[in-house]
């Protein structure tokens, strides 16, 4: 059976991270190349997601 990453319910994962350059759907990594704990993401990723959703609502 293939191993799978645990499902993380964080809407910011829908976009790529501008800070650590993780692709959409992947968790963020710290400076040492380790995943951030508990499915956390960088603040810049959350801000980019919020900006994108706000722009979509105002159109």
What can be said about this structure in brief?
This protein has 59 residues and is an all-alpha fold. 27% of the residues lie in helices and 0% in strands.
- Distance between the first and last residues' Cα: 45 Å
Q: Strand content of the residues, in percent?
A: under 5%
Shape: elongated
Annotation field: number of helices: 1
Q: Considering DSSP H and I runs of 4 or more, what fraction of the residues is helical?
A: 25-40%
**Helices and strands: which structural class?**
mainly alpha
Are there runs of 5+ residues with pLDDT below 50, and where? none
**pLDDT averaged over residues:** 85
SSE blueprint:
Elements: H1 43-58
Protein described:
The protein is mainly alpha-helical and 59 residues long. The protein has one domain. It contains one helix and no strands. It has one helix at 43-58. The radius of gyration is 13 Å and the shape is elongated. The N and C termini lie far apart (45 Å).
Features:
single chain, 59 residues, mainly alpha, elongated
């Amino acid at each position: 059976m293939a191993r799978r990453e645990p499902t993380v319910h964080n809407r910011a994962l829908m976009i790529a991270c501008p800070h650590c350059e993780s692709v959409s759907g992947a968790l963020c990594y710290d400076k040492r190349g380790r995943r951030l704990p508990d499915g956390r993401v960088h603040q810049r990723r959350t801000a980019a997601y919020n900006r994108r959703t706000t722009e979509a609502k105002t159109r």
